Amino acid sequence: MDAQLTVELASVISAARRRATRDGDRQVDTAHLLHGLLEWDPAVRDAFDGGPPQIARLLGYLVQRSIGYGLQWHGTVEDSGAVPVVAEGGVPGWSPAAAAAMDGALDRAHARYALRAGCLDLLAALVDDPESRAVEVLRRASVDTALLAARLDGQTADLG
User: Fold this and answer.
1) Over the chain, what is the mean pLDDT?
2) Which pTM was predicted?
3) Mind telling me which InterPro entries this protein's record contains (predicted)?
4) Residues 96, 87: Cα–Cα separation, whole Å
5) Are 62 and 31 in contact (CB under 8 A)?
6) Could you give the CA distance from residue 65 to residue 122 in angstroms, rounded to a whole number?
């Protein structure tokens, strides 16, 4: 899959994997991916209309997942139910929702005839699953996910 990702998105995925391991989680979930996106890509941070205070609030929630907020997720598999669960096997080390988000990012890139999926493609795919952990964090930080989705649809269309 790495050949289908931009260098930035490959870095985000590596960061998400390290974070999941460091947090003692068995799987990379959508919140890990969101955390990596916010840390690695300025274009992702620019997609939010709340500016630096909103990004700081989002990162604060994401950092707290191993010590407070998000602790209820520890040891559980993220399966929002909003996307079809991958049949047997799935993607080893990935929650079904995170794997579906990656597929969604690739689909978005292919729809605009891009050779590689980028960070904004993944962010848009994360926002497309209203029951994911990433969207739960976004809502908790007062992000209007419908407005963000509409903004991202415009931005990813401009990339192609």
Assistant:
1) 84
2) 0.85
3) Clp_N_dom_sf
4) 9
5) yes
6) 21
